[in-house]
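Technical note accompanying the year-one report. For the benefit of new consortium partners, we illustrate the data format agreed upon in the data management plan: each record pairs a sequence with a structure-token string. No post-processing was applied to the example shown here.
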Amino acid sequence: MSSETQSQGFVAGFGPQASSSQVCSDLMAEEVVAAVLPKAGETVWDSFQRITEASICMNENHSRFEAKMKTLCAVRDDLKDRTLKYKSTKNRTMEDWFHRVMAVEKVVEELESRFTEKQETSTWIHVLPRSKLSKQMASMCLEIDELVMEGNQLGDTLVHKVAERVVKVRKITRRI
């Protein structure tokens, strides 16, 4: 194409009214779309795969979730028993930990009931609710692990209780 044709406002592929700046911005837009579109496609596909995988792994996540919860309950029961025998140097921290464990137990009960409902549903038809539940159970596993670790550390703060002083009082009787 000759420079004379371009000076008259005709740029190849963009019609007779296209300016050079419009052509540059259109070409840049095409380059951006060409660069972003495959990544967006990969992102959507990756997201779909993660959702599907979470749905498929729901039963596996539930088994792991149950095992971790049993461990947390064992740590809780051990700490309760040990607090009867020993004294904690971090009393408020210990109470806060027990309250957080109780809160987790309530969430676990709710997740358990939802799992019972979703357990027999189709992995593919109910992919979103199953995936969401599976991810919530996996997230709760991390929280449970944290509580177990904290509980074990709190167990190290227990010390022997100081024996109460026993004072013997002799009964003095006066005879008159």
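Partners are asked to follow this layout when depositing records. Confidence is low (pLDDT under 50) at residues 1-16.
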